[in-house]
Design a protein that fits this description.
By secondary structure, the protein is an alpha/beta fold. It has 10 helices and 6 strands, in the order H-H-H-H-E-H-E-H-E-H-E-H-E-H-E-H. It folds into 2 domains: about 50 residues; about 260 residues, Rossmann fold. Strands 3-2-1-4-5-6 form a 6-stranded mixed sheet, sandwiched between helices. Strand 4, helix 8 and strand 5 form a beta-alpha-beta unit. Helix 3 runs antiparallel to helix 4. One of its GO terms (biological process) is xylan biosynthetic process. It is found in: Golgi apparatus membrane.
Length: about 325
Amino acid sequence: MKSMGSRDKLQAAAAASGHRRVLLLVFASCFAFATLFTFLYTSDHFTSGSSPSGVSRYSSASSSISGAGAGGALPLPVFDALVHYASFSNATHRMTDTDIRAISAILRARGPCNLLVFGLGAESPLWLALNHGGRTVYLDENEFYVKYLEPRHPGLEAYDVSYTTKVRDFRDLLAAAQKSRAAECRPVQNLLFSECRLAINDLPNELYDVAWDVVLVDGPSGWNPSSPGRMPSIFTTAVLARSGAKGRPTDVLVHDFNFEVEQVLSKEFLCDENRVQGSGTPSLGHFLIRAGGPKDSFCSGQDSAAAASSGEKTRK
């Protein structure tokens, strides 16, 4: 066999070099395309999903909610699927299946709506999702829990509240509110300037002007005598529902309704005549509150004499 000449060797080397250049060019082109695609996708994702620095919590949440509102309410199959899987959740300290479904039924009937929730818990992301297209605001006693949950659930709008009440004082607080029902603790008033001990008057100002369609009272904590108890949240809800200038009523849902504080305060400020029978559960009270009404009484039959009598009974 003849050995390869110098010219043949040069031609073979040139061919091999050209082949490598073609492969290198193809590889470089593919890499450049992939890099450009990734850059464009990432830029679009962060532009639409992140708010610019310096935007307040409320502005960011409002933008997110406004974007959701453009799509309207959740399709019913999606709504039902979320409720179904939430009902089978094994999260600790969660609501019962019947309570979750009862609250979800109200949100389906009223949503998308303005939803105010006292208390953050295992179901908080569910209420936010079910009220897709509406505005959902949470109020909680734990400032650190608020800061913990907000970045983990985009669009969640939450504020911390400082409560000064104690469960052990609830009968004295109730008696004082009954005595000043025509004055500081009247049912129709501007809570921002209220001097009633049960009024929450340190929320962001604009929250007092919102026409709340649904209010869920699931906080603050009330498990021991030193806990804040839900006296302020129930009273404040009753005033918000009656003082709002709107043509539609407010659905008020009181969780843990099987406990004394929730039952007594609901009877006093939300009233038995406003109770919606058959729509709650033993641990969930459902009330329908309409705006307006008498200026010195929350429920029918409440007057100065009845208030004094009731105050004496609560102290026995």
